[in-house]
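Hi R.,

Here's the input for the inosinic acid complex you asked about:
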Amino acid sequence: MKLFVATHNAHKLREIGEILPAWEIAGDDPGEVDENAPDFAGNALIKVRAIASRHPGCWCMADDSGLEVKALGGAPGVHSARYAGEPTDSAANNALLLKNLSGHADRRANFTCAVALVAPDGSERVFEGKVFGRIREELKGEGGFGYDPLFVPDGYEKSFAELPPEAKNAISHRGRALAKVKEFIHAGAA
Ligand code: IMP
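And here is the predicted structure with inosinic acid in place:
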């Protein structure tokens, strides 16, 4: 099954390919779309609509995701990619997060991922996944991307960046949202 994914993020594309190994995944850059929705679902829909018209009769999807930190009122949230400003810079984002959280005892946070899917008949659906955890005091690990070196999922001592990809994907916000997508498509195909 072929699936067009609206992204220019090679890390995300790789994770999606790992989570959906039976599918032929093709990235399609949505270009400079204005991700101005107030929530992840709205932004995922904006991105998938930007590519769906180019692939009539095909499955298309986009994900929008981010980190929500309790003590910061849900920030960086939909602004996760550019928390420290343009252009996206993970090192600067992580440094700003640590600075803004310094002195806070409550380090609880979660990642959220919304996946918007356009079916071959043009109908749209959004699936959401979350993973809860806490923000470390310093960066740890080399894997993953973005805030992974700072995020320790509940029940673990290691950050997402220290876990092997299959361990992260099994519990991650993206893994959980994509499991729902998989279930939906297979139920329809049966
Ligand atoms: P998006 O590309 O608009 O969905 O922005 C997502 C941003 O949220 C990324 O640039 C990362 O900063 C952060 N993010 C989303 N998912 C993850 C993840 O799995 N690990 C670490 N950071 C993530």
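One thing worth noting: Helices lie at 10-19, 40-52, 90-101, 165-171, 173-189.

Cheers,
M.
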